[in-house]
């Protein structure tokens, strides 16, 4: 589902938001950051400030999307995989699917913000520091 902000204004798009919604493909030059320029409501998502992206609900029960759900029932908790690599507990800022096997997480750790590229099997491809915490 594609949703876009036109002229920096807020726009809502109807969508099943039960469960977890992610940015599956960034379209705008403006980076879409959940909680800042996009988020979910009860039956829709909203975007603003130039965010334009394709959104996916990854909580549906099919084989392709189940791999993105964290924890329990044999599924891998991707944030925990990043935390293990960083040897710290972090708080997730954003989660964007790069492709069907790789997820990009932006995570705040005590010493700064990091980009964590993690595969669906929990293998962390890279953990790169983006900047210090303010």
Query: Which sequence of strands runs across the widest sheet?
Result: 7-8-9-10
Percent helix: under 10%
Strand-residue proportion = 35-45%
Number of helical regions: 2
Q: Give start-end ranges of low-pLDDT stretches.
A: 61-75
Number of domains: 2
**Helix and strand run:** EEEEEEHHEEEE
CATH architecture of the largest domain: Roll
Largest sheet: 4 strands, antiparallel
Task: Please describe the structure with a list of short key phrases separated by commas or semicolons.
four-stranded antiparallel β-sheet; 10 strands; three-stranded antiparallel β-sheet; mainly beta; Nuclear Transport Factor 2, Chain: A
Structure explained in plain terms:
It contains two helices and ten strands. With 134 residues, it is mostly beta strands. The chain has two domains: 2-57, no CATH class; 63-131, Nuclear Transport Factor 2, Chain: A (Roll), CATH 3.10.450. It is globular and about 40 Å long. 19% of the residues are buried.
């Amino acid at each position: 589902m594609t949703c876009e902000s036109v002229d920096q204004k807020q726009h809502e798009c109807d969508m099943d938001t039960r469960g977890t919604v992610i940015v599956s493909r960034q379209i705008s030059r403006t980076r879409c950051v959940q909680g800042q320029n996009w988020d979910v409501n009860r039956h829709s998502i909203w975007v603003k400030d130039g965010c334009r992206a394709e959104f996916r609900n990854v909580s549906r029960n099919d084989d392709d999307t189940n791999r993105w759900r964290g924890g329990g029932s044999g599924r891998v908790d991707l944030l925990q995989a990043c935390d293990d690599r960083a040897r710290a507990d972090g708080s997730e800022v954003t989660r964007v699917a790069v492709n069907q096997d790789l997820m990009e997480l932006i995570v705040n750790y005590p010493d700064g913000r990091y980009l964590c590229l993690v595969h669906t099997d929990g293998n962390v491809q890279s953990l790169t520091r983006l900047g210090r915490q303010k």
